[in-house]
Every structure is written in C-alpha cells, then in structure tokens.
Structure to design on (481 residues):
C-alpha cells in the first residue's frame, strides 16, 4: 500500500470518527449514566413473590367446581400449559393459560366464564395489595410507559389504581381477567426516566411497535459500535508511549481532547465490549434460540395430555393464596403457595402434604429429550456461573440434568415442586458470556463479594462517562467553529 493511500485512509478514518462521534457520544454518555441508575432501580414489573403477596386466601368453602369441571366449561381439548386456582376479590376462580398463550378464567363458584371485570371489582382486588390504603381509580389505560410491552396484550385494557400509600404505589388490574399484572411506585417511576427508559430508548410511542423499536436500537447501537472501534484505532495511532511529543506527553492534544484521548485508551476495550454485548442483546439475525422450553418437552415431562386431573378438590389444612395443578411423569399433584411465596406439594386427591423423591424427578427428567441420554445428574447447592441470582431471586438447591444431545442441553429442576426452572444449551451458555458477562459483569467472583461488583462497574462507568462527555464537549466546540 502506498504512503499516499495510507495517509488518505487515515485522514478519512479521523474524519469519519469525528463526525459520527459528535452524535454517538451523546448516546454513549446517556447509556453510561443511565446504566449506573439501572444498577439499583429496575424497570417496573411484578415478581411472582409480589403477585402472591397481593392475593387473598382461597375460600375453599366457595369452590363448587373441580379442576376437571373447569376445563370442561372452558372447552379445552388438552391439558393447558398452566392451571391454577386463586381468588378474584371474594370469588374463587380457575385461571388457564393455553399452549398458544390464550387465557381463560372460569368461576369456581358457578362455572361462568369471566371476560369482563368492573371498576368496583378492580378496586376490591386492589385492596388486598400489601401497600393498599385508600385505593382509587386513576385511569383506564390501554398502554402507557410502564405497560408498553406485548406481554400485557391479552390483558388489556388495564385499570390503573392508586393505592393511597406514602410510596405512591399504583397497580394495574386486567379488565379481562381481574389479575394484578403490574405495580409501580413513585421511586421507580422517577428514577426510570433517568435509567431504563433512556438506556433502552424506551419511549412509549416507539416501544409499542416491537419490531420497529428493535430495528431502531439495532441500527443506533451498531453505528455506535463502529464509532467505538474507530475511536480505539485513532487513539492507538495518535498515542506515543516511547517517543513522546514535544511537550513530553503521550498525547498531542490538550484540554477536553486530551481527556477524551487518554480515557478512551484506558477504557476503550470496555466501551467496545459493552457496546457489542448491548447490540447482541437484541439477538441480531435471531442467532440465539428462545430460552422457552418447547411444548413437546414439557408434555413428555408431564406424561399426560388429556384435560383431566381431579374430579373433586380437597381443601388443604393450611391457608393458601394460590393452588396450581400439575402433572409429573403421569402423576397428578397440587402445589399450593402462601402469601410469603412458600410452596408446598399436596396430594391432589387427599390434600395431604407429600414428598417428591429425587429418584422420581430423575426418572421424569430422562424423558425430556427422548433421542438423547441423560449423562449428568447433579445438585446445585450454591450459585455458580450458570445458575446465580443478580437483581432477582433463584431457588437453591436445584437439580441439573445434562444431556448428550448436539446442543449439550441442561435443565434446572426444582426439587420441591418438580418445576422445570430453566433450559440452557451451548448457544445460551455462549450468550451468557457474550452478554451477561460483558454487559452486566455477572462474574461469579464479583457477585460473591457484591461490593466488588459495584466498585468495578462504578469505576468503568465513570471512565466511560469521561470518554463520552469529553467527546460531546469536543464535538460541540468543533461544530461551533
């Protein structure tokens, strides 16, 4: 390559990085600052523990229909993906989720289908929330900033009810099923405007169209990824570690530009890997398969497909807010949950407590993948690199069933309830390192000593912010000239 061509390419490299960087540094600064907020304030949601805490005790004496009767009323032709009993205010209700995602609610008192919930019912439902003081209807929303995602589509429109507590808690109650599907408080709502919303580029007008939002973020993060790569290249070309510049410095720049150059050299790799992992989180090209366990796998594990489980419903001796009806390797079971999230396994015919021997679970696990062999049976008693808690709770201990299929699939199984808690394969384990490790720094050693994780992420975020803010200042001054 001729010297002239090299100079020309280098010149265009500098020009390209300068002009693209003027805009992209604004995004970089936004992402680093909002990322620090997200370390401590998550986007509003409703965990299973929070959902259970907002349910009243089941009034077993009002239950007139058996689970089999409810499935007949719902006209289901095979056992649903999920079948559970809970209260809708003061009425017991069976809730079913089909394999296609459809939902049905059947009154356990008289068998009628519940398709519409009134404002008065919604207020009665909200009063059982632990934060409820003086619940009042604020609005009926189809989609707002906190309920924008498609997961709420089968439940819309939603009653937005303020609970009247000091934290400013609001709950969203489905007008179709009567379920509390989301709660937020004032702290979450305020901080998320500085955290998740700018970080994910999450305004309602854009996010309500999932494919368009994904495309916009892919392009923005992709362009920023190019900016980061060219910035490292330019930084290396301009630094002098041995033959210093006339001023004795390793950089030819002064002021904000010197900060941008030196901080970029120190934090450049982090910025680049952080951008790459963020871009990868959108699964470009749909390279990484879904983590959801396929229907056929769950069906084999259950060992039962007909819409039957119990012709009568026993009343448990202890209070419960929810009862789930499940099959495991051809055997019916009832799992009841308390308001504190504790789950107990009961015999579906007698209502007595029952144990779940591990041998039985391993036998059922062998049927998950019929064309593969179960090669490893292990008990995960402590968190490791693939089963760990960070910003959410995870059950311990769990069983890990490893297979010798082409994807080297693992299943994590609850020894208490027999639930399949997760499925990961080679692709998901790769994604765990390319996204979770690079983007969230979910390294086991850092998570074991949590202050270490905070310190590392804070320091790197500060360096990234210096790179970004200095780039914004330099770009603004350049535009003014």
């Amino acid at each position: 390559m001729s010297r002239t061509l090299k100079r020309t390419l280098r010149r265009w490299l500098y020009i390209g990085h300068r002009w693209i960087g003027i805009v992209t540094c604004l995004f970089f600064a936004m992402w680093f600052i909002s990322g620090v907020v997200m370390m401590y304030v998550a986007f509003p949601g409703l965990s299973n523990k929070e959902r259970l805490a907002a349910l009243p005790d089941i009034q077993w004496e009002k239950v007139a229909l058996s689970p089999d009767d409810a499935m007949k009323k719902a006209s289901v032709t095979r056992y649903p993906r999920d079948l559970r009993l809970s209260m809708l205010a003061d009425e017991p209700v069976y809730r079913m989720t089909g394999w296609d995602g459809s939902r049905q609610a059947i009154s356990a008192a008289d068998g009628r289908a519940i398709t519409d919930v009134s404002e008065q019912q919604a207020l009665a439902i909200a009063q059982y929330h632990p934060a409820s003081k003086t619940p009042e209807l604020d609005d009926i929303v189809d989609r707002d900033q906190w309920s924008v995602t498609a997961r709420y589509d089968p439940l819309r429109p939603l009653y937005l009810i303020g609970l009247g507590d000091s934290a400013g808690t609001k709950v969203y109650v489905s007008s179709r099923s009567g379920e509390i599907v989301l709660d937020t408080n004032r702290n979450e709502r305020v901080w998320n405007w500085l955290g998740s919303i700018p970080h994910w580029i999450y305004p309602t007008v854009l996010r309500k169209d999932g494919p368009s939002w994904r495309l916009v973020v892919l392009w923005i993060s992709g362009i920023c990824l190019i900016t980061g790569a060219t910035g490292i290249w330019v930084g290396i070309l301009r630094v002098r570690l041995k033959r210093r510049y006339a001023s004795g410095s390793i950089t030819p720049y002064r002021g904000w530009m010197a900060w941008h150059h030196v901080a970029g050299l120190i934090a450049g790799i982090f910025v680049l890997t952080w951008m790459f992992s963020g871009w990868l989180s959108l699964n470009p090209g749909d390279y990484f398969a879904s983590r959801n366990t396929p229907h056929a796998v769950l069906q084999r594990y259950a060992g039962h497909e007909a819409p039957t489980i119990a012709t009568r419903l026993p009343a448990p001796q202890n209070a419960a807010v929810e009862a789930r009806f499940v099959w495991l390797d051809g055997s019916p079971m009832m799992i009841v949950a308390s308001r504190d999230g504790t789950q107990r396994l009961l015999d579906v015919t007698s209502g007595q407590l029952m144990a779940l021997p591990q041998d039985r679970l391993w036998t059922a696990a062998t049927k998950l993948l019929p064309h593969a062999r179960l090669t490893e049976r292990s008990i995960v008693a402590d968190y490791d690199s693939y089963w760990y808690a960070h910003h959410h709770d995870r059950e311990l201990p769990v069983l890990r069933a490893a297979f010798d299929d082409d994807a080297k699939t693992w299943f994590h199984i609850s020894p208490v309830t027999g639930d399949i808690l997760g499925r990961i394969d080679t692709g998901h384990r790769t994604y765990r390192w390319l996204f979770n490790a690079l983007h969230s720094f979910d390294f086991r050693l850092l998570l074991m000593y949590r202050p270490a994780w905070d310190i590392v992420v804070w320091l790197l975020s500060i360096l990234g912010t210096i790179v970004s803010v200095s780039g914004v200042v330099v770009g603004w001054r350049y535009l003014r000239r």
Remarks:
- The longest strand covers residues 82-88.
- The longest helix spans residues 3-38.
